[in-house]
Amino acid sequence: MASLNDPRYGFCRDCMAAQRAEGRRCHVCGSPRLLRHPELCRLSIAHVDCDAFYAAVEKRDNPELRDKPVIIGGGKRGVVSTACYVARIHGVKSAMPMFKALEACPNAVVIPPDMEKYVRVGREIRQMMRDLTPMVEPLSIDEAFLDLAGTERLHHDPPARVMAKFSNRVEREIGLSVSVGLSYCKFLAKIASDFDKPRGFSIIGEAEAKDFLADKPVTMIWGVGKAFAATLEKDGIRMIGQLQTMELGPLMAAYGTMGQRLFRLSRGLDTRRVEPNGESKSVSAETTFNEDIGTRDELVAILRSLSEKVSRRLKAADIAGRTVVLKLKTRDFKLRTRNRQLADPTQLADRIFRTGCSLLEKEIDGTRFRLIGIGVSDLSDDGRADPKDLVDVQATKRAVAEGAIDKLRGKFGNNAVETGYTFGKIRTPPKASPEELE
């Protein structure tokens, strides 16, 4: 009989039974979801990605949507935040303009994003990850890296089985599915998690890495986007295998520090460690208008509402940001980004809003905008955030008032109290695009 961890025969992802021999189905429960790999018991870097997360949460909460195409987004001029797999069959993709998504799938059910709910569910899954290992590096609300090296004695199982049990637990307790990639490095673990969605579990071992990468496009390398891929193509490089034949010196001479990345990742060399403190780089909120807006009063009202959303997220996560970033997109899709660094980190809506207003004033020149966003970066914990202002006494008073408003909203809901900036002034509530933890 095969041992529990025999990589030749593997185990069943559904009933977790060790397999006694080669076969296409589990000899215990008959499931075809078998996991085998020569390095099954030696790999410890995992990447977890929730399947069509926002849409999956909505389908979980409303069973009537289960077999329908669902798009999470807002307004005909907004973009798709995510789409369920039924909608994806029709060609709907994330970041696609909403009007194009509805042309591709006119029968889709469109749901505005409910980020507070998604964050809540994401945290439940995150805690399940931390039950496995403290080495969890979140990349977004619905994906993260895990390093399970050294946890076998704790769990009495190798990482592969631990992650299979984890994915089953998420389905059972949360009602959502995840896909898992397992490898010896972050680069390949993330690639693996995309292979067999939804409910996937793929493995890329160290021995096979170079051959596996050889026939893949250069765009599979982390950091190679469309623009850089076009540059490589002009130089006759389209496949990763071509990079594997090139030496480090010529690559760095041609592409600078990016050449070093091409050299290493094309050979499956990635020494980046899972960083448990790298949870987020910025917190932001934005909205796309149904009609272009150019007046100060309307833009300021929406900016205030978005600043409050960002503030709520910062306070809930016990973090603060030192750099305020304003984002505007003109009617001809040109993007304007402006930022200002503060003396101290903040999580106050008042400081975020007033800084954003100062940046916005310089952009109000008759231009009409289709999108506005506000956010903060340079994140840290909230220990040194918003010290009392001994010079501007009014700022301290506003901070106290904001704390009182937060308590009322916490008790009666976010719409319980409105400021004069927003009351009766927002033509369309800013809900087209979700806040983001990036």
TrEMBL record:
Top-level division of the source organism's lineage: Bacteria
One Pfam family named in its UniProt record: IMS
Catalytic reaction annotation: DNA(n) + a 2'-deoxyribonucleoside 5'-triphosphate = DNA(n+1) + diphosphate
Active site positions, chain numbering: E143
Cofactor dependence: Mg(2+)
Cofactor mode of binding and number, as noted: Binds 2 magnesium ions per subunit.
Gene Ontology BP annotations: DNA repair; DNA-templated DNA replication; error-prone translesion synthesis; SOS response
Entry's EC annotation: 2.7.7.7
Keywords (A to Z) from UniProt: Cytoplasm, DNA damage, DNA repair, DNA replication, DNA-binding, DNA-directed DNA polymerase, Magnesium, Metal-binding, Mutator protein, Nucleotidyltransferase, Transferase
Main location: cytoplasm
Residues that hold Mg(2+) according to the record: D49, D142
Subcellular location per the Swiss-Prot or TrEMBL entry: Cytoplasm
GO molecular function: damaged DNA binding; DNA-directed DNA polymerase activity; magnesium ion binding
Family: Belongs to the DNA polymerase type-Y family.
HAMAP family: DNApol_IV
Role, per record: Poorly processive, error-prone DNA polymerase involved in untargeted mutagenesis. Copies undamaged DNA at stalled replication forks, which arise in vivo from mismatched or misaligned primer ends. These misaligned primers can be extended by PolIV. Exhibits no 3'-5' exonuclease (proofreading) activity. May be involved in translesional synthesis, in conjunction with the beta clamp from PolIII.
Self-association and partners: Monomer.
Record-given protein name: DNA polymerase IV
Species of origin: Phyllobacterium pellucidum
Annotated gene: dinB
